[in-house]
Amino acid sequence: MTAQHWRIKLSLFLNYFVFAILLNSVGTVILQVQNNYGVSESSASVLEAFKDLTIAIVSFLVASYITRIGYKRAMLIALAFVTGACLLMPAVGGFAMSKLLFATVGASFALIKVSVYATIGIITKDKQEHASFMSFIESFFMVGILCGYFIFSAFVDDADPLSAAWLQVYYLLAGISAIAFLLLLTTPLDESSVHAEPGKPITADFAEMFGLLAQMLVVVFIISAFFYVLIEQSIMSWLPTFNNKVLLLPTTLSIQMASILAASTALGRFLAGVLLRKTHWYAVLMVCLLAAAVLVLAAMPLAEGVDGSAVVGWGDAPLAAFIFPLIGLLLAPIYPAINSAVLSALPARMHGPMSGLIVIFSALGGTTGSMLTGAVFQKFGGQTAFYFSLLPIGILAASLFFFNKLQKRALEKGK
Fold first, then answer.
1. In 3D, which of 268, 257, 229, 211 has the Cα closest to residue 362?
2. Which of 120-134, 179-193, 385-399 has the lowest mean pLDDT?
C-alpha cells in the first residue's frame, strides 16, 4: 500500500471520528440546552430534525452531483464547514446556534459518508481488503461515539448547571476536523476511474432512485428501516436526559453512562457478524426484537422511585442505568442485516440508488423518533417515553415478517 493511501486512510478515520462525536452528541446537547437555555423537552427534540433532515436532503442531491464535485473536494468542503461551525458554537452560543451546528453537521456528513464509501473502493485492491477496511472504519465510528460521551462530560460543570464551559469542547473538535482537512488536502487522490458518465442527465439518477419505490420489497424495507432508526435514535438521543431527570444522576455521569448504549451496540454488531454467517437473518432479528421488548418491560420498573441524591459515581448508580442501555446489544444487528438483505435481492446496478433511499428514510426515522420521544417525555415523563418504544418494536416485527417473505421471493426470481 502506498504512503498516500495510508495518509488518505488516516484522514478517513479522522473524518469518521469527529463526525461520530458530533452526530451522536445530539443527546448530550439536548440535555445541555434544557439546562443552559431553559428549552423544553419537545423544543429541544428539534435538534434531531436539524441533523437528520439535512442528511436526508443533501444525500438526495449528492447521489447525482457527487461524481461531478469529486470525492476529495466534497470531503474538504464538509470538513471546512464543520470546522467553521465548531468555532462559532462557543463564540455565539444559544439554542439557535445549536440548530445551525447540527444542520451543518448533517449536511456535511451526507457529503462525507458518500465520499468515504466511494473512496474506499479506490484505495483498496480487492474485495477482502475493501470489506476489512469498511469494517474497521465502521468500528472506528463506534469508538468515536464512545469517546464523545467522555469528551463532552469532561467539559461539563456539575457544580454550575448554567455554566457554558461545555461549549469549549467545540474548539477541540474544530482542531481534529482541521487536522483531517489539512491531511486530506495534502494527499493526492486519483479519482479518474469514477468520474461522472459524460452526457448522463442528473434526472436519470433521480428516476432510478424513485423507480425502486414501485417495488413492494423496497417499500416494506423502507418501513422496516424507518421504524428501526426511530427506535434507535429515540433511545440514543434521550438516554442522557433520562439518566439525569428520571434516575436523577449528575449531568456528567448522565452523559458518561449513556456510553453503555454505544458500547453494547458495538458489541452487538460484532457478535451478529459472527452469528449471521451460520443463522438466517430473520430468525436472529426476531429473537433480538422479542428480547428487546422483554428488556424494556424489565428495566423500566427499576427506574421507579429512584433516589439519585447520593449518586456521585458509577458505583453508586442505580441498576436501571446499567440494564436499560443493554438494549443496544439486541437492536444492533437489525440495521446492517436488513440493509444487506435488501441489497442482495436487487441487481448490483441498483445498489447506488437503493443506498440513497436507505440514507434518506433512515434520517427521517431518526427525526421522527426523537421528536415523538421528546413530546411524550415532556407530557408523560421519561419512563412512559421509553415504554412507548414497545409500539415501534411491534410494528418493526410485523414489517420484518413481510420483508422476509418478499426477499425470499425476489431471490428465487433472481436465480
1. 229
2. 120-134
Average pLDDT rounded to a whole number, residues 325-338: 87
Considering only residues 325 and 366, tell me which one the structure prediction assigns the higher pLDDT: 325
328 and 405 in a single domain? The answer is yes
**248 and 128 inside one domain:** no
What are the backbone dihedrals phi and psi of residue 108, each rounded to the nearest 5 degrees, phi first? -70, -40
Instruction: Please indicate, yes or no, whether residues 77 and 215 belong to a single structural domain of this protein.
Output: no
User: Looking at the domain assignment, is residue 196 inside a domain?
Assistant: no
Residue 194 belongs to some domain of the structure: no
154-170, pLDDT tens digit by residue?
Answer: 888 777 777 778 899 99
- Which residue segment(s) compose the domain that 164 sits in? 1-188
Mean pLDDT of 91-112: 92
- What residues contact 126, with CB distance under 8 A and at least 6 apart? none
- Give one word for 70, left, alpha or beta, with left for phi > 0 and alpha for psi -120 to 50: left
3 state SS of 198? coil
Is the model's pLDDT at 207 over the cut of 90? Answer: no
264 and 376 co-located in one domain? yes
Tally of domains within the chain: 2
How many whole angstroms separate alpha carbon 53 and alpha carbon 45? 13
Q: Which H or E run contains 88?
A: helix 71-92
CATH number of 394's domain? 1.20.1250.20
The b-or-e profile of 311-322 (16+ CB within 10 A means b, else e) is beeeeebbebbe
Say how far apart CA 323 and CA 313 lie, in whole Å: 16
